[in-house]
Each structure stands twice: as structure tokens, then as C-alpha cells.
Amino acid sequence: LLAVVFMVSLVFSLYRSRSTSSRCLSSTASYVYTCEVVHELRKTFKKFRGSLRLVRDHIDLYKEENIFFRDEGRRVSDVRDATSIIEVLDDLYDHHDAQLYKSTFNTFRNFLLARRAQMASDQLKDKDVLKLIGERLSAKCDKIDSWPLDIQSFEDLSPSVKRVYKRGLKAYLQAKDSGKTEEFHEWRKRVKSLCYERYLLN
Asked: For residue 33, is pLDDT > 90?
């Protein structure tokens, strides 16, 4: 039963990813909408990779599939990173709005918006990146049913949960000791991995 539930979850995630990439291929889709879709697409890829980690001890092609979805996510990472910078700038203003003029960041924000719009045009529209992702996901959907999984109980999955938790704890301690931004980023990634596993198990 666990194997069936897991396969259904994987297939659903795959179809959602494919649907998400298809939604902004329309010529009428704005670049802002496209950037929002890219965000959802990357989140779905991360959840899928979290699901794979949960059964990595039971699937021989874990490394191959993990690399596949990692690389697909990287195809749109520049656009998402550009959006993240804008969001951080907006959060910064909201946090200090009482001490800033409304136009304080306007010039810089407009520059960032123009930069993101160019990225969305160059990488997503002109190069048909989302179309390529959709095609590759469609091919993956046709293969997933043949993945060999033999999961009988939670005991089969607990080693993976413990491994992810242990890595998260290690990353937390390293971030706490060093105070470095990259260490906190690594810890955040580990926390997300654990959250995705918990989501699937619930």
C-alpha cells in the first residue's frame, strides 16, 4: 500500500510540473505570470526530489533521477533568483517603511524588474525552455510506472528520515557556529527536505 501511495504522489507531482510549465507557453502570458509559474515549478521539483530521497534505499536509479530533476530546476533558476532579489528588496522596505521614503528603492527596483523581464524573455520565451521542460517531463511520466519499489512499512523508510534529520542537525550546528550566510542556506535546504518527507508521509 505504501508503495502505491508513493507512486501516486510521484505521478501527481510529475503531472503538476508538466502542467505548470505548459501554463505559461501561451503568447498572452505576461512575464510576471511566467515568473510566478517558474516559482511553482521549482517548488514542485524540490518536493519531487524530497520524495526521491525518502525511497533512495529502495530505488536503484535514485542518483540518475535526482540529477535529472535538479538539472531541470536549474534551467529556470536564474529567473527565480532574480525574483527572489526583488522580494528581498520589498521585504526590506516593508520592515523599515517608517524610516524610508516611498520612492527610496524605486530606481533600483525598476532596474531589477527590467533585468528580470529580459531574463524571462531571453531564457524562457526565446529559447523555449519551458517547452523543453514540458517535453522532458512528459517522457518521464511515461516511465515512472515501471520504477521498481518494494515498500511494506514505515520501517523501510525510517532510515532515510533519520539520515535527512541527522544532516539537518549537522547543518544547523555548522550555521550556528559559523554564522555564515551559505551555512544557513544549506541548513534551510535540509529543513525543506525533511518537510517534504513529512508531507508525503502524512
From this structure: no
d(CA 55, CA 51): 7
> 3, 157 in Cβ contact below 8 A?
no
Q: Please tell me the distance from the alpha carbon of residue 68 to that of residue 54, in angstroms, as a whole number.
A: 17
Count of all residues that appear for the chain in the document: 202
pLDDT band at 119 (very low <50, low <70, confident <90, very high): confident
Which residues, 6 or more positions from 109, have their beta carbon under 8 angstroms from its beta carbon? 86, 89, 90
Residue 27 neighbours by CB under 8 Å, 6+ apart: none
Q: In the predicted model, what is the mean pLDDT of residues 69-87?
A: 88
Q: Which has more pLDDT, 173 or 153?
A: 173
- What would the DSSP string read from start to end of the chain? -HHHHHHHHHHHHHHHHHHHHHHT-STT--HHHHHHHHHHHHHHHHHHHHHHHHTGGG-TTHHHHHHHHHHHHHTTHHHHHHHHHHHHHHHHHHHTGGGS-TTTTHHHHHHHHHHHHHHIIIIIIIT-HHHHHHHHHHHHHHHHTT------SGGGTHHHHHHHHHHHHHHHHHHHHH--HHHHHHHHHHHHHHHHHHHHH-
Q: How many angstroms separate the CA atoms of 81 and 109, rounded?
A: 14
The answer to whether 17 and 44 are in contact (CB under 8 A) is: yes
Cα dihedral sign, 140-144-146-151: positive
